[in-house]
Amino acid sequence: MIRDLPPSHFLFRIESFSLLVKTEVEMYKSDAFDAGGHQWRLVLYPNGNQKNNGNGYISLYLEIERTENLSLNWEVSVDFKLFVHDQIRDKYLVFKDWAVPVRRFYELKTKWGFSQLLSQETFNDASNGFSDGKGIALSVYLELEEAYALPPNRKLFAEYKLRLMDQIKSNHLERKANHWFHSSSSNWGYPKFVLLNHLHDASKGYILNDNLIVEAEILIISRVKCFS
Q1: Contact 110, 67 (CB under 8 A)
Q2: Distance CA 194, CA 140 (A)
Q3: For a FRET experiment, which of 37, 52, 119, 206 has its CA 20 to 30 Å from that of 198?
Q4: Which segment, 139-143, 211-215, 218-222, 223-227, is predicted with the most confidence on average?
Q5: Distance, CA of 187 to CA of 143 (rounded, Å)
Q6: What is residue 26's three-state secondary structure?
């Protein structure tokens, strides 16, 4: 299943994912986040959860946190989805156990997810848009200057277009995005805006006389808003 909308509760972005794979990091946990009155983390196995049939795959799980604060014999039933962002088409691949949509978290089972989320082969295929674009694509981002100066729990919303100019036929490559910018997320865009082989294709006109032109057009911008 594929959808346009991003996850509603938490976004887990990893810079230089390939380094986690090469250095054979077994497991990587996200920061904690709140949903439904409980604390959670995403747990990633870049080389697959070898203990649960994940060899050759990327494994990803949702884990409940701070269970020591819950009552004796606690249980939390959750209907959740996990997503992987296709950075080329700006779509989200949806993962959900449709056969058992609601999972029960309890003392002996604090983690649910997918041991075989994506095969390494699928993930590493640049045309699928899941891995970073280093060495194979031009990355383009919009960045909020001095985002660090925003007060805590303040965000700034922007909807915008990023545009790579075709300097011959005016057949520009354009992508639209939106993002809540804040002190810990000051930029947003496309790690794989255009593949390098397309960028250097002279017939497309992106590079002319050794010049490359990228434009940003701000469509909507909100006032800084406080979130509780």
Answers
A1: yes
A2: 9
A3: 119
A4: 211-215
A5: 4
A6: coil
Tell me how far apart the alpha carbons of residues 114 and 123 are, in angstroms, rounded to a whole number: 15
Which amino acid, 121?
E
Helices (H), the chain: 17-22, 120-124, 196-199
- Assess contact for 212 and 194: CB atoms under 8 A: no
Task: Please give the structure tokens belonging to residue 214.
Answer: 């990228």
Structure tokens at 68: 């020591």
Written as six digits, the tokens of 25 are 């990091």
DSSP for 102-116 reads EEEEETTB-EEEEEE
Residues in the chain: 228
Q: Tens digit of pLDDT for each residue in 50-60?
A: 999 999 999 99
Which backbone phi and psi does 209 adopt, to 5 degrees?
A: 55, 40
Measured between alpha carbons, how far is 55 from 119 in angstroms, rounded to an integer? 9
pLDDT score recorded for residue 102: 96
Please answer whether residues 59 and 115 qualify as being in contact, where contact means their C-beta atoms are separated by less than 8 angstroms.
yes
Whose structure tokens read 């057009």? 217
Number of other residues whose CB lies within 10 A of the CB of residue 196: 14
